[in-house]
Amino acid sequence: MRGALDLDIDWGNAEIECDGGPRPDGSGVRVSFAGPPHGDGRRMRLVFGVGSVHEGRPGHDLPTNLTVIFEGEERLFATRGSDHCTVDELRQERVGALGGPKRSWRIIARGFCIAPASTLNGDARILVSRFDFAGNAVFEDEN
User: Residues 22-25: contacts with CB within 8 Å, 24+ apart?
Assistant: First the structure.
């Protein structure tokens, strides 16, 4: 991550919090990763909104929206659109029991951004040039 902040992020399984599922509009999957919390309550969260992908299916060249949130600092950077980042390759592996109204998948993806994410007022920008992630997403049937 380069720009207003220069950070190299390499979080391991035990130090992150992951949450995922379908995007609210059903157009893909959203996966969120929160890094280890600092003693003062600050932590960084990355949210990937990957479009044009469906539960259980692989994908290539998928439009992706990226939001970087600095919790406890009231700072947020967003690409504001899915044309700034792309997931090159996405795989999904079934986790847990098969069938049922609630299904879990391990989402494994790699990609890149060609344009920076900016603060809401546009006064600062950061570029996440490439990313690799693996996290779980849960899909539920509607009642």
Answer: 22/55, 22/137, 22/139, 23/49, 23/51
Closest CA to 4 of 72, 82, 76: 76
Could you report the per-residue pLDDT of 5-50, keeping only the tens digit for each?
A: 898 888 887 889 999 999 989 899 999 999 998 888 899 999 999 9
pTM exceeding 0.70: yes
HSE (CB half, 13 Å, CA atoms) of 78? 10
One-letter amino acid for residue 130 of the chain: R
The span from the CA of 82 to the CA of 126, in Å, is 16
Smallest Cα–Cα separation from 87: which of 116, 58, 124? 58
Q: What is the dihedral of CA 68, 70, 73, 74, to 10 degrees?
A: 40
| Residues contacting 98, CB < 8 A, separation 6+ | none
Question: Closest Cα to residue 107, out of 20, 11, 36?
Answer: 20
